[in-house]
Design goal:
This protein has 93 residues and is α+β, with helices and mostly antiparallel strands. It contains two helices and six strands; from the N terminus they run ααββββββ. β4 and β5 form a beta hairpin.
């Protein structure tokens, strides 16, 4: 019951990003698109967190989406749902 109450109150909603955090996110996405490196994304979609690791095929600036090609379809991820992005060739110190 407490978990449901916290969810209704917005306790699990992602925090608003600052200007420099958005700039860093944009640079990471652009670098992944340019170098064709896999990109690990943390997404906030449909009131829950999701993770995706893909190689960006294209960036649709008009629709504000990232496109990822799979064997059967093209996935579209709205830029507004991206909370965090990390290049897969990076490592933690």
């Amino acid at each position: 019951m407490l978990r449901d109450w916290k969810k209704e109150e917005g306790c699990f909603l992602p925090k608003e990003k600052t200007g420099w955090e958005l700039e860093e996110l944009q640079q990471t996405i652009q670098q992944a698109a340019r170098t064709k490196n896999a990109l690990h994304l943390t997404l906030w979609q449909n009131t829950s967190w999701h993770n995706e690791t893909e190689i960006i095929t294209a960036i649709d600036t008009a629709k504000r989406e990232l496109l990822f090609e799979t064997k059967t379809t093209i996935k579209r991820i709205p830029l507004s749902s991206i909370y965090a992005a990390k290049l897969m060739d990076e490592y933690d110190d």
